[in-house]
Amino acid sequence: MPTVPNGRTSWCGAEHRAGLKARPYDGATAYSTLLNQIDNTLIRINIMLMVRSLGWILVSMFALVLPAAAGAQDRVRIEDVGLDGYFGVALPTPVRVHIPALDQTESVTVRFLVESGTDPRHRSLKRTDRFSETVQMTRGEPLELEAPITMPNDSWETLTVSVTSEGDKLVGEAEQEIQARDKLVRGETLVAVFCGKAEKCASAESQITYGSAEGTNNGKDLRQAVLTHFLSKWWGYSGARAVVVATSTAGITPAQNTALEDYLRWGGAVVLVEKEIGDKSLLAGYRQGAPRLVRVGPGALYTVPSLESQQLGQVIAELLSPRPASTAVSRSYSIALDTKNLLEQVGVAFKFPRLRWLILWLSVYLVVVGPLNFAVLHRMRRLEWGWISICVISLAFACALYIASSKGRPANFALDRASFYWMYASSPIAEERSAVRVSSPERKTLSATVN
User: Fold this and answer.
1) Does residue 433 contact residue 420 with C-beta atoms inside 8 Å?
2) What is the CATH number of domain 77-183?
3) DSSP readout, 182-228?
4) What is the β-pairing status of strands 106-119 and 156-165?
5) Regarding predicted confidence, which is higher, 323 or 148?
6) What pLDDT was estimated at residue 427?
């Protein structure tokens, strides 16, 4: 038996120390160990392949989802309806629509469809209103469009906006259900607030709430809309009883300034908080040495020094105090009444039979068809002809009545337009208020375009 240094001996590769028994070589154990190593290697390889496959799957999913997500963000969508969701009935409601960028410069047509009805469960259609506008878009630039839409006073309304490019190619479409809780019913008052920072908004809203509690109905019918951007058209504010400006207006555009001024001249109330505004150019023509209240036609301009002065609540209480024509709806009715009277004076006159004329005509008919007809037939000894004579007399009177009453009917199609123009000493802007009326001699579908 061979001898190994350090007192060790070797037997067929097996070692033993003093006091230990040598272990012979086991071929089955070595083979099993080798198989286990091979299995572990295969498992690691399978795991690596699975991880790599999962990685490729995730990369493919992201490659498919990211363009779809990018397209979903850049699509035709309805950004806002009304002032912070609130809108009035029979008044121009601002609808803000986002149109994505196009690949080329071209004009697009934006169509608004308002469907409404009385039965929200069965969706029975009662009325359909349409409005369209054509705008020019620049290549690669999205567009934010504001359009005046009239919302009907029904149980349910659905607004659909579709954008088509040249050749009636659909760019995109969006639909929104109009919530009844956002509709301002008669008697409710909306105050729009521009306040910027959260602490200023909290202070302004608390003072407005306090002022409304001092006004009518203990403030139960007050609604507040916190706005973040100034509108470029005056009709966007038409649903609000007052607009409170308590934020910096340094970046306001001339169109947005004009919109506030037109809303003021139309009959709205604007409240300016001097300290928070910090801009003397906003409605400058009415603020030069102006007192706390300046009357601009049917409108009113109020100024308060700051929110810390706690005068905003007093102004709101004064605005909401009971007085005639204090709501936007009644003001719109008075506008329509003025233009209607002017159209009746200068436009096509519609002459309808008066009640006195109808009573006289009916009296003559009764005399002719009754006593006079009987006397003539009795003298002719032909009373049995009464069945024929009554029918003939009735038909003759009906034809005569129709001819006489249709003399005042217009014979041709006519378009009448009446306009008011007026100015105020404190502003260089002249205001125009127009009304258009179409007269038709027959029932027919007409298309009118107003620029």
Assistant:
1) yes
2) 2.60.40.10
3) GEE-TT-EEEEEE--SHHHHHHHHHHHHHHHHHSGGGGTTEEEEEES
4) antiparallel
5) 148
6) 67
The pair of structure tokens assigned to 61 is 């999913």
Enter the tokens of residue 242: 């007052």
- 85, two tokens: 């969701």
Provide the residue ranges of all domains of the chain, joining segments of one domain with +. 27-68, 77-183, 189-325, 355-408
Phi first, then psi, for residue 145 (nearest 5°) are: -115, 135
- Give the Cα separation of 365 and 398 in Å (integer): 10
Query: Phi and psi (nearest 5°) for 449?
Result: -115, 125
Q: Which two tokens stand for residue 341?
A: 């009277």
More confident residue, 285 or 8: 285
Q: How confident is the model at residue 333 (pLDDT cuts 50, 70, 90)?
A: very low
Task: Tell me what percent of the chain is helix, strand and coil, each rounded to the nearest 5.
Answer: 40, 30, 30
Q: What is the CATH number of domain 189-325?
A: 3.40.50.880
pTM here is 0.61
**What whole-number distance in Å separates Cα of residue 157 and Cα of residue 117?**
7
- At position 366, the amino acid (one-letter code) is L
Q: Can you tell me the distance from the alpha carbon of 242 to that of 83, in angstroms, rounded to the nearest whole number?
A: 12
Strands (E) located in 203-298:
222-227, 242-245, 269-273, 293-296
Q: Tell me the pLDDT tens digit for each residue of 235-292.
A: 889 888 899 999 988 888 888 988 998 898 888 899 999 888 887 788 877 876 666 7
* C-alpha span between 236 and 93 (Å, rounded): 6
Distance, C-alpha 108 to centroid of its chain:
20
Buried residues in 220-255 as b, exposed as e (16+ CB within 10 A): ebbbbbbbeebbbbbbbbbbbbbbbbbbebeebeee
| Residue (of 417, 414, 416) closest to 440 by Cα position | 414
| Tens of pLDDT, residues 390-442 | 888 889 888 888 887 777 677 778 888 877 777 776 666 677 777 788 887 77
Say which residue, 41 or 13, is predicted with more confidence.
41
Tell me the C-alpha distance between 211 and 206, whole Å.
9
